[in-house]
Amino acid sequence: MSVAFRRESDEEHLEPKFELPIPRAPNRVTAAGQRLIATRIAELEAALATAAPDAVDALRRDLRYWQTRRTTAIPTAAPEDGSAGFGTRVTIRLGGRERTIDIVGDDEADPAADRLGYGAPLAQALFGAEVGDQLAFNGRDETIEVLAVAPIDAAEGPSYEAGGAS
């Protein structure tokens, strides 16, 4: 039989389905990041239980992503010395404007809400900084002034403000 007369399956015309990309960097997480992963897994498992057949594949793909993120999570605490780093909330003055930034893991990152992944250039510029430091950024000296540093996850941990700890 000629190939011209064969019936093609519906599957041949569908877009390929790929796994969600896993970031290459270590999967560092804050306590809030661990809760986010657990919540996302629970939501997806609940959605799978009632999902329409055409939505199951996408939900399973998302669930595989989040289960992998849970398995590879590395709980990471803020630096104990009061410097800026992973898991810290840093208040800075940048371009004459005050801004408070949380340095978090990739899955927690939300740049619009000033939650930057630890690999972001601004987050990297802040690593190791202490209150009162003037930092170079974007090729210019003394662009960033560090005003305060505090651990994100600390229920009642110290806050390192300009002028001393509080």
From TrEMBL:
Gene Ontology molecular function, alphabetical: translation elongation factor activity
Source superkingdom: Bacteria
Database matches in Pfam families: GreA_GreB (PF01272)
DNA damage as UniProt keyword: no
Domain Transcription elongation factor GreA/GreB C-terminal positions: 82-149
Gene3D superfamilies in the cross-refs: Transcription elongation factor, GreA/GreB, C-terminal domain
Keywords attached to this entry: Elongation factor, Protein biosynthesis
Keyword match Magnesium: no
Signal peptide range: none
PANTHER family with a match to the protein in the record: TRANSCRIPTION ELONGATION FACTOR GREA, TRANSCRIPTION ELONGATION FACTOR GREB
Descriptive protein name: GreA/GreB family elongation factor
